Amino acid sequence: RSLLQVLASVACNFVLLDLNLSLAYPTILIAQLHQKEGPLSLDDVQASWLASIPFICQPVGSVVSGLLVQLMGRKRSLMLVNVPFLVGWLLMYTAHSFEQLAVAQVILGVTIGLCEAPLNTYYGEISQPELRGILAGTAGTTYQTGFFLEYLLGKVTNWRTVVIMNAVLPVITVLYFSQVPESPIWLLSKGRKRDAQNALCWLRGWVKPNAVKEEFSQLVRYSEEAKKEIELRTPDEEERPEANTLLDWTHREHVTAKRRWKCLGLARDVLRPPTLRPLSLVVPFFFFVHWTAMTAIRPYMVHVFEGFKVPIDPMWATVGSAGIGILGSLCLLLLVHSTGKRPLSLCCIAVCSVACVLLGLYLNFHSFLNSSQIKSVISSSVIISQYRIWKEIYGLETTLEYLNKQLFGCLITERKWRRQFPPLCLRRNLKEAIVLQVAMAVTGFLGSVVMIGSVNRLGKRSLAMSSVAVCALSCLLLGVYDYLFVDRATWVPLVLFTVFSFANSIQGQIPWLLVAEAFPFRTRGLAGGMAAASNYIASFIAAKTFLSTEHSLQMYGSFWFFGVVNCLCFAFLYFLLPETEGKSLEEIEHLFAGNKDHK
Fold first, then answer.
1. Higher per-residue confidence, 93 vs 534
2. Which residue ranges traverse the bilayer (predicted)?
3. d(CA 451, CA 398)
4. Which of 46, 423, 494, 512 is 20 to 30 A from 113 via CA?
5. Measured at the alpha carbon of residue 321, what is the angle toward residues 314 and 164, in degrees to the nearest 5?
6. pLDDT digits over 30-59, tens only?
7. Whole-number average pLDDT of the chain
8. Which residues contact 313 (CB under 8 A, 6 or more apart)?
9. Residues linked to residue 34 through DSSP beta bridges, in sequence order
10. How confident is the model at residue 425 (pLDDT cuts 50, 70, 90)?
11. DSSP letter string over 14-79?
């Protein structure tokens, strides 16, 4: 019973792979063309636009997809979107200017939006309740796999070759999708009961109609109830203002008025609690998810890894982060049914928050330790301790020359040094070094006082052993600190990025699981399109503003900002996110409608 549902979901995953390759491609394009010499080069503004154009164009396609999926059905919509995907990749391959690249990104962005509503609804409508979370969760694995494959291709070949490989996938997707059935619920909404029953039999393992009789009856009842609710909210013909006008209306005008009323009724349904409540949960969830770092930095991953000075090739680090994302998506598949969406969401968001704060602290501390001021203070401290010896041995002139070279990197005459540098630089550095030496002397004095007060009670042996142990530990920590932080590439940010990528790959897929199951059937297409549109609006803002945020707050400040957003997201979900795992679509609808008596 499960195998055919898996095969049908694979068809959706092919479309999703088309979508993810389009989202991952700007990372390769920016890494190979940003601030590079050649006939085609991108500056900061152009790079930010290419990174964000698909996100801002997607809402156009999402709104259209909500209507398209109701008219054409899930299957035909998902087959049709492969045509503009292919056109966009071919235009990208032939591009020789920023403008051509931008047009190709616009086409791909709109097509991404066209995929959202049919993808989200098809996952939820073809699967049984106990498999819905797992099958919808495969979308997360496919999502991360798309990034991994695209980054890997970008590492081993150039951006035009990657485009040709991407253009092959839409053709394969159409061929595969032609072999799977339409959504049974959509077929029932069109009055095609025989086709709906055949589709359900196919999805449950090519079984006989008697084997799915009970489930099919539930789908029929659910579809009829949805139709009745729409009819109850539709006034009779004589109550409609359109029907009380001139008697010479044509039949076509009457049909147009009926369609207009149905569209108005659909818009009203979106504002009712069964749709409005999950929509008011999912839309902020998307905004929080995309402002928790990964979406913002993904197009600039190579640049970010270079900023953290990771000990491996930044492009390989980017590939590795996508590979970790695949592992996180697989864990989501294994855990979502037993653990539930709510605990997973809260745990992953907490981990992401801690990782972002630590990344910001690391970068800020590492930059501080490598700053010229700290180095000059250290140099001044050494100079003070040896100043009198140098003066006695080498004389004043030679000593001043050495000071000039150590502190300023050049030889300066005694008169110029006396006039300019002592009040500006040397005295300040010497003052800071003197403060450090005074602090060390005071600490030594306090240690002597402690020794005098405790030697009789603790004994010389205990004091000596404990002091030696503390000195040994201090020397060990100083050595580890010097190895990890001072003028060396370090694995610390790479480990933090690994943890962050793992948790984010789980966190980022949970709102999509909600989109696949939280909305009622009658508004599922339109509400799913609206949710997807909000998702990409948030993605556009995050990707477009990252470079500006980095320039304003520095990179460490940006990660602190992302950590704060993660904390806000945790609070939001803690109070508002219900558990929907293991519930049928009807139960979820009653949950959001506030019908506590329904079981």
1. 93
2. 48-71, 78-96, 159-177, 278-297, 317-336, 343-363, 434-455, 462-485, 491-514, 526-547, 559-577
3. 43
4. 46
5. 80
6. 888 887 777 888 888 888 899 888 888 888
7. 77
8. none
9. 42
10. very low
11. HHHHHHHHHHHHHHHHHHHHBT--SSS-B-HHHHHHHHHHHHHHHHHHHHHHHHHHHHH-HHHHHH
pLDDT, residue 197, reads: 87
Question: The tokens of 319 are what?
Answer: 């590939």
What's residue 435's pLDDT? 59
For 57-98, write each residue's pLDDT tens digit.
Answer: 888 887 788 778 878 888 888 899 999 999 999 999 998 889
Q: What does 115-155 look like in DSSP terms, one character per residue?
A: HHHHHHHHHHHHS-HHHHHHHHHHHHHHHHHHHHHHHHHHH
Question: Does residue 413 have a pLDDT over 60?
Answer: no
**At residue 307, what is the residue type?**
G
The answer to whether 109 and 54 have CB atoms below 8 angstroms apart is yes
Q: Which two tokens stand for residue 375?
A: 């180095």
pLDDT of residue 421: 40
Largest alpha-carbon pair distance within the chain? 117
φ/ψ (deg, to 5) at 95 = -70, 140
Grouping H, G, I as helix, E, B as strand and the rest as coil, residue 94 is coil
Q: How far apart are CA 14 and CA 8, in angstroms?
A: 10
Point out which residues pair with 42 in neighbouring strands: 34
Helices (H) and strands (E) in the chain, counts: 25, 0
Contacts of 119 (CB under 8 A, 6+ apart): 12, 15, 16, 19, 78, 139
| pLDDT score, position 106 | 93
Measured distance CA(111)–CA(63) in Å, rounded:
12
Tokens standing for 15? 């479309």
Contact 44, 546 (CB under 8 A): no
Angle at 105 between CA 101 and CA 111, to 5 degrees: 150
Distance, CA of 476 to CA of 481 (rounded, Å): 8
User: Which band of pLDDT confidence, cut at 50, 70 and 90, is reported for residue 5?
Assistant: confident
Tokens of 501: 């990528």
Residue with tokens 């819905």: 132
Q: Among 21, 339, 342, 364, which residue's Cα sits nearest to residue 162?
A: 21
319-328 confidence digits (pLDDT tens): 998 899 889 8
pLDDT of amino acid 303? 86
CA-based torsion, 364, 367, 370, 374: positive or negative: negative
